Model the fold of this input.
Amino acid sequence: MRLDPIDQQIIALLQEDARSSYADIGSQVALSAPAVKRRVDRLRSTGVIRGYTALVDPDALGWTTEAFVELFCTGRTSPQQIRDAAKRHPAVVGAYTISGEADALVHLRAVDMAGLEEALERLRAEPFVTSTRSMIVLSRLVERLAPKVVTVPGTGSTPATS
Done:
């Protein structure tokens, strides 16, 4: 779906604060509240906006230790097998198939190093995992759920869609 500059502005404003009213957004994009609502409804119905959520600080919940773990798997391991295994482990906050030497990359969060080690050992016990390589996160520098929508001047498009 091609987004016009007003759609892009609306998405950017919702990414900043999804609780903004249609009237507040409308005042920033020069549209009425009903016109903003129609656009947001269209963005939702076409799947551009998938939903709204509360962003929770993992540190505030005590999940202060994290790592990225490369999984090396047996020859015929499917993405579905990796997905199913990842969902069984509460410490897994993200899992991805990747290119390169490893077969998958898993993001783990735990309350401390002992919890991280326990989660890693459970992950290693999956029958298709042959080995792992871990990288402990020292600090989070940038964390977004999606790329920030920014209008490229003069093009009416975003860098991600250009």
About this structure: The chain has five helices and four strands.
